[in-house]
Amino acid sequence: MPEKKKKLDTMRALILVGGYGTRLRPLTLSRPKPLVEFANKPMLLHQIEALVEAGVTEVVLAVSYRAEQMEKELGEEAKKLGVNLIFSHESEPLGTAGPLALARDVLSSSNDPFFVLNSDIICDFPFKELVNFHRNHGREGTIVVTKVEEPSKYGVVVYGEGGRINSFIEKPQEFVSNKINAGMYILNPSVLNRIKLQPTSIEKEVFPGMAQDGELYAMELQGFWMDVGQPKDFLTGMCMYLASLRQKSPGKLYSGPGIVGNVLVDPTAKIGEGCRIGPNVTVGPGVILEDGCCVKKCTLLKGATVKEHAWLEGCIVGWRSVVGRWVRMEGTTVLGEDVIVKDELYINGGQVLPHKSIATSVPEPQIIM
Amino acid sequence: MLKAVILIGGPLKGTRFRPLSLDIPKPLFPVAGLPMIQHHIEACTRVPNLGEILIIGSYPTSDLHQFVQDMTQMYGLSIRYLQEFTALGTAGGMYHFRDQIRSGSPECFFIMNGDVCADFPLQDMAKFHISKHSLVTVMATEATRQQSLNYGCMVLKKGGEVDHYVEKPSTFVSTLINCGVYIASSDIFQTMADTFYANQQQEKLLQLNGNGKDPAYMSFEQDVLMRLAGSDRLFALPVTTWWSQLKSAGSAIYANRHYLALYRQSQPARLCAAVHGKCHIIGDVYIHPTATVHPTAVLGPNVSVGANAMVGPGVRIRESIVLAEAQIQAHSIILHSIVGRGSRVGEWARVEGTPCDPNPDKPFAKMENPPLFNTNGKLNPSITILGTCVSLTAEKILLNSVVLPHKNLTRSFKNEIIL
């Protein structure tokens, strides 16, 4: 009991980090997905920083594999941010609800509501508004919803005036709503009573019951939102993120000769003469862009090199990879860590595993083992 | 005195060379910086005692006029174009103009098909021809068993006499093939006359005049060589120097490479030096003196750049022909392609083809001329060709495609023919 009192003013969050991030391979073969840099910052750090901003001081990371590298790297960042990280290891995959039961002791150590996040989400995190919205309706849970253009691809959320959710409809054939679950929630500890410690889906097995009881509300997200769990969406999300950066803090974006549109450049990167960089490019630390290269809608990770006159569009270039002179790369090509693409080649939609040296063109999408 | 006849056919022939032959007669298409048949003319000028070159074909005189004038001036030799009133076949044209060929009483004369390219061994042929008292001597080369079926095949006796000759057999006969280059004595016109009258006679008898060919049509291969085989008056000289047909546009890149290699042997001054004042050169490269090439461009191996062409900063060109007045803009890359006259390739664009060279692991393999489409109806990958005045927008890719003249391409194309 005295311990509970001590933690009374602590806001908590649980992030569903989950498994190996296979959808973001070959990048996740070298680095756990939460550590893959999105706009020059590990994906998970975007979320942790936003949570800290909203007053969260304790974050549970629900992981289903041993994550020493993650603990080490994120631990340092967490210290700087003054947030307490707790790693919660699942010995078997517990779905999207099971990890909450596993972390029950931490999450129920006060009566304050806690946040739950899917780890692949990038948006203007609305955590402060979410807390206020949640306290105002006074029910057990609130989920953030976002508008999509083609709702029939997703499960949509149907709710009434004030946001009270009526139902969830999986892949509706006729239009009922254009709002989908954005993968961010705030829940009262009482919700934990609805979850058993076994593989459970929060979307399919917990939320419908809460909605039926009138205990679940929806809050509409303003601004951009993207699930960046796979390469194509990773790049689309990056475009959205950079556009939002242009609105909120344009000073963080780079400008200079040859820079077109929204471009983020680490100060330790080098850009040669006669390049055309942008729109929508992220250049990581130590990256070298040689003279006369053209890069559009790409993420270049730490230590990558793009040689002279190369042309890249819609690519992710892995850590320390080298793209040769006059190479053309497009079609959501993803180079893993330390890949070498020889001069003058054409790579279209190639997914190249780490430490490969590519000596012949890949004109059609292909995985290169 | 010797003479030479270059047979160039007419505008109805050489369709496989489209779209490059759509606005320039195929015999004038530049390979290694020179019109195709200028290589023939140059080979002739190296033969001492060669008095005149006659070009026979059915192209309008106006098409050849400037070229013939330039050649006459450049080589100080009598060069004339004789226009057939209609396509008369490889022998029919010569027979029609027999008086022109015989005037001045040459001992013998070379006959060269315009659509072959080679390191022409004309002097060796003349020596051999004279020593054998031959009527016609055929330049011959080795082919693979399979490829021999596309050519005229010969079987020789020990002394070089052609014992058997067959044109494009359906079953294997011999790997020794006819190169389309000959030396003949004037007496050949007697053989032609015999054939001519025999054909006329047959024509009258059978009233065959419905096959669409002129009654004076005569093929040198079918009507003359086949008739002479086994008579001990037809000889062949097998050679091992480079030789290729130049039928499809794709073979132009191959021919370009070989003619450049011949320059390296015989006239290295024509090639750009490795440390060229203009740009970075790799291997054999020909740049016309009036072309502008930026110092940061990298060219070669096996590249020809035509008159007044412009190659911008940071451009990369390999295994390609860039024709006159073409503009290749900054950072673009051209591989295994032909860029037509006055065409424009935008910044950071990529023009790339797939080479269809002879298999280097097969001795004697010749250039294949595969059909345009494969059995699935898909375009066979080949070199990329931009016709005259085609423009490719910046940053686009053109892969294994053929573009007809005057197209403005604003998106990327792969494996397409663009009409």
Automatic annotation (TrEMBL), chain A:
InterPro entries in alphabetical order: GMPPB_C (IPR056729), GMPPB_N (IPR045233), Mannose-1P_guanyltransferase (IPR050486), NTP_transferase_dom (IPR005835), Nucleotide-diphossugar_trans (IPR029044)
Residue stretches making up the Mannose-1-phosphate guanyltransferase C-terminal domain: 259-368
Cofactor(s) needed for function: Mg(2+)
Gene Ontology molecular function terms on file: GTP binding; mannose-1-phosphate guanylyltransferase (GTP) activity
Pathway(s) the chain acts in: Nucleotide-sugar biosynthesis; GDP-alpha-D-mannose biosynthesis; GDP-alpha-D-mannose from alpha-D-mannose 1-phosphate (GTP route): step 1/1
UniProt xrefs under Pfam families: GMPPB_C, NTP_transferase
Enzyme Commission code: 2.7.7.13
Keyword rRNA-binding among record annotations: no
Similarity annotation: Belongs to the transferase hexapeptide repeat family.
Protein name: mannose-1-phosphate guanylyltransferase
Organism: Neodiprion lecontei (Redheaded pine sawfly)
TrEMBL record, chain B:
Pfam families linked: GMPPB_C, NTP_transferase
Residues annotated as domain Nucleotidyl transferase: 3-203
Record-annotated Mannose-1-phosphate guanyltransferase C-terminal domain positions: 281-418
Cross-referenced PANTHER family: SUGAR-1-PHOSPHATE GUANYL TRANSFERASE
Family membership noted in the UniProt record: Belongs to the transferase hexapeptide repeat family.
Protein's recorded name: Mannose-1-phosphate guanyltransferase alpha-A
